[in-house]
Amino acid sequence: MLIRKLFKFENAHIVRGCSTRRCSHSIHGHSYKVELILEAHAFDNGQMLYDFGLLKGGPRDLIDAFDHAVAIWDGDDADYVAACKRFSERWISLPVSPSAEQFSRLFFRLVDTLLGLTDTVNGEQDVRLHSVIVHETETGYAQCFREDADNPRMGLIALDRIVFSDAITQAWRDPQLFEKLKRGERLSNPASV
Ligand SMILES: Nc1nc2c(c(=O)[nH]1)N=C([C@H](O)[C@H](O)COP(=O)(O)OP(=O)(O)OP(=O)(O)O)CN2
């Protein structure tokens, strides 16, 4: 069985090298919708696959980090990167360009890492991230499956190449969340939300 939880955020970017000139040569924004799709074949103590409320903890924090922020490819022009960081306090530096495709891979890597490090406490059974859909517009989306997330032909998304600005991490309930993910620290779900 699959379940799906939807998240939303507003983000600005440039996607260098793409065919659409407005996309590759001008900073622009999108109202993104992100679908996290989870898979399992048995239920928790509440006869749910995974309580939607639990996804409003760490997974939502990681996605909400991108809200009202600028996503920067770390291989972009150095002057552009410096200007983004100078004039926007909320920025994320990425090892890949911020296309819908790469956003879907990025969120897969982040949320999959978080879920893999999280000890469940309510009888959840073998829950795994099935896929992530990122809607960039009303008409276009990308969907990342597990085999896409680590596909070197699509560019490696190493967590230590992702940088969230201080304004972003300080807004998290746990400002150390991403550092813990990078260290592979075990986390635990709350007993109730
Ligand atoms: N495969 C992809 N193609 C495009 C991406 C992308 O991330 N992956 N991104 C863009 C631009 O960011 C652009 O803003 C969105 O493109 P488009 O779908 O053309 O946007 P519209 O709102 O103009 O779409 P309509 O269907 O005409 O409303 C470009 N391509």
TrEMBL record:
InterPro entries: 6-PTP_synth/QueD, 6-PTP_synth/QueD_sf
Pfam families: PTPS (PF01242)
Keyword check for Zinc: yes
Catalytic activity: 7,8-dihydroneopterin 3'-triphosphate + H2O = 6-carboxy-5,6,7,8-tetrahydropterin + triphosphate + acetaldehyde + 2 H(+)
Record-level Gene Ontology MF annotations: 6-carboxytetrahydropterin synthase activity; metal ion binding
Keyword annotations of the record: Lyase, Metal-binding, Zinc
Superkingdom classification of source: Bacteria
UniProt pathway: Purine metabolism; 7-cyano-7-deazaguanine biosynthesis
EC number: 4.1.2.50
Cofactors (names): Zn(2+)
UniProt entry tagged with the keyword Lyase: yes
SUPFAM superfamilies per UniProt: Tetrahydrobiopterin biosynthesis enzymes-like
Family: Belongs to the PTPS family. QueD subfamily.
PANTHER family: 6-PYRUVOYL TETRAHYDROBIOPTERIN SYNTHASE, PYRUVOYL TETRAHYDROBIOPTERIN SYNTHASE
Name by which UniProt lists this protein: 6-carboxy-5,6,7,8-tetrahydropterin synthase
Lineage: Bacteria, Pseudomonadati, Pseudomonadota, Betaproteobacteria, Rhodocyclales
